[in-house]
Amino acid sequence: MPQNKNSLSKMRRMLWLMGIVKIPMIAYVKPRLLQLDDEQALVRIKLRRRTKNHLKSMYFGSLAVGADVAAGLHAYYFANKEGARVSFAFKSVKAEFLKRAETHVYFLSKDGDIVEKAFQKAKDTKERVNQMVRVEARNTLDEIVAIFDMEISVKIKS
């Protein structure tokens, strides 16, 4: 039976390696990938000493890392699925903080289809493609604590 190129354990390992090798802030915050498929990505960041601010709620930077990971993993997911190399970055971010995140936080991106279309367009045109995606951050009581509108920028490497 062929192994799925995008198994959850493989993508978790890729996230861990990215944190160790390329983006140390990811390694420091230790986000946990809970779900990743064609439609959505779900990531959890625990509220603990490393992720707290002086008010004992989740620090702004920790929330930004969670949104970055939840939105960004889809680009790697689709690139890996197609066997392509991708150059990926965020061009802009608009964040709305609705309440203090005083528990662990779950970051959900349901825009996998949007990222896939951007990936396919970048692959077809060989140009950089920009697209907006949304990430909702929810506490353990399932209350929205923040909403991130993030502009992704995708280019397929040759």
Explain what the structure shows.
The chain contains 4 helices and 6 strands; from the N terminus they run ααββαββαββ. With about 160 residues, it is α+β, with helices and mostly antiparallel strands. The chain has a single domain (about 10-155), classed as Thiol Ester Dehydrase, Chain A, CATH 3.10.129.10.
Brief overview, please?
By secondary structure, this protein is an alpha+beta fold.
Helix content: 25-40%
- The number of helical segments is 4
- What portion of residues belong to β-strands? 25-35%
Name the shape in a single word.
globular
Q: Judging by the overall fold, what is the CATH architecture?
A: Roll
Number of strands: 6
By CATH, the topology is Thiol Ester Dehydrase, Chain A
Task: Give the SSE layout.
Layout: H1 8-21, H2 24-29, E1 32-36, E2 41-45, H3 60-82, E3 85-97, E4 105-109, H4 112-125, E5 129-138, E6 144-157
Antiparallel strand pairs: 1-2, 2-4, 3-6, 4-5, 5-6
Which properties best describe this structure?
Thiol Ester Dehydrase, Chain A; 158 residues; globular; 4 helices
